[in-house]
Amino acid sequence: MSTKFATFTVNGLLIKMRNGWLAALMLVFLIIGSGCERELKDPDKEVKYDGPTMENHDVTTLYSDSAKLVTKIQAPVQQEFETGDRVFPKGFYVEFFNAQGELESTLRGNYGKQEPGSNLYIARGNVVVNNLKKQEKLETEELYWNRNKAKVYTDKFVIFTTAEQRLTGTGFTANQDLSRYSITKVTGVFNFEEE
Fold first, then answer.
1. With a threshold of 0.90, does the pTM exceed it?
2. In this record, what's one Pfam family (predicted)?
3. What sign has the CA pseudo-torsion 74, 179, 184, 128?
4. 13 by DSSP, 3-state: which?
């Protein structure tokens, strides 16, 4: 009768244990690594933030020429966007001063926007321009104001009221103080008679 005993060496056992640990360690890394895999997304399909990059409240902006106040803009909220747009979502109010520093005319609208890189403003919603000296008033729903040229204009319906008459029409161009104006398509002239 012969008996065989299993023989092993310490080195062989260490090699087998090391290979086992390496296999177990690799299995752990494989499990962890597969759980952390990131899904690549198309950047063009990602939702991008397009809101304001800056918002200021109770804003007053002054423009001067030769150290004399020319224009004062006030707004409850002013927002600036990455595109360069400056928006007045709650409206704005503008005061125009003459060369003597006297308040000459005003402009207000329920919404305003300044085009990027220019001095072109757009006023929308209940837009009113008043010439305080002549007591003349322009009313419309949309008006462009070019600050560099000191002009206002629109291609929308307008009501222009002077001391003697009320004019209605579509399309209007004037100096920002309403001193010189033209209505493109006059639709009505209403004279006021004194009694």
1. no
2. LptC
3. positive
4. helix
